[in-house]
Amino acid sequence: MLRQGADIELGNGMSNDDTSTGAERATNTAYMRRWRSDEVNRVRERARRAAAYRERKSRAVRKNHENSPAEPIGRICAICRTRPSIGQVFRLRLCNSSSSGFEEVLIPYCGKC
Ligand SMILES: [Zn+2]
Fold first, then answer.
1. What does DSSP say about strands 102-109 and 87-94: parallel, antiparallel, or unpaired?
2. Where are the alpha helices (DSSP H) in 13-82?
3. Which pLDDT score, from 0 to 100, does residue 72 have?
4. What are phi and psi of 38, to 5 degrees?
5. Interatomic CA distance for residues 113 and 111, integer angstroms
6. Which end of the chain is more exposed for a tag (fewer CB within 10 A), N or C?
7. From ligand 1's centre to the CA of 113, what distance in Å?
8. Any long-range contacts for 104-108 (C-beta under 8 Å, 24+ apart)?
9. For range 2-22, the mean pLDDT
10. How far is the CA of 85 from the centre of ligand 1 (A)?
11. pTM exceeds 0.70, yes or no
12. Which letter does DSSP use for residue 15 in this model?
């Protein structure tokens, strides 16, 4: 049901890209318009995108946090990790214990990025 348009295209050996005909595109557009008009689909998609965004963000924060002990703190910009730092700036970090979900941290900053 959800992949109806794609199944038709796969049967022709064609993918959903520039090789799609105008009629196929019109069918796909009409299908997506119907799909988006359903409130349940819109809410589910919004929640899925928000969860994916949180996951990407927290993964990036974890990665930065894991890398930081290996580097001398305060000498290299914590954002670009290439230029020397000239000062410190406040940034927000994800934090489960805070009511807002974020905490302020001071990080070294090069002043350019
Ligand atoms: Zn920088």
1. antiparallel
2. 22-37, 39-67
3. 56
4. -80, 120
5. 6
6. N
7. 5
8. 107/78, 107/79, 108/73, 108/74, 108/75, 108/76, 108/77, 108/78
9. 55
10. 7
11. no
12. -
Which tokens sit at 82? 């290439």
Q: Which amino acid is at 71?
A: E
How far, in Å, from the CA of 112 to the mean position of ligand 1? 6
Residue 20 tokens, joined: 């799609």
- CA 7 – CA 111 distance, rounded (Å): 52
Q: Does residue 11 surpass a pLDDT of 50?
A: no
What is the number of other CB atoms lying within 10 angstroms of the CB of residue 85?
19
Instruction: Count CB neighbours of 109 within 10 A.
Output: 19
Q: Quote the ligand 1 centre to 92 CA distance (angstroms).
A: 16
pLDDT at position 40: 94
- Looking up tokens 């049901």 gives 1
For residues 93 and 57, is the Cβ–Cβ distance under 8 A? no
80 alpha carbon to ligand 1 midpoint, in Å? 4
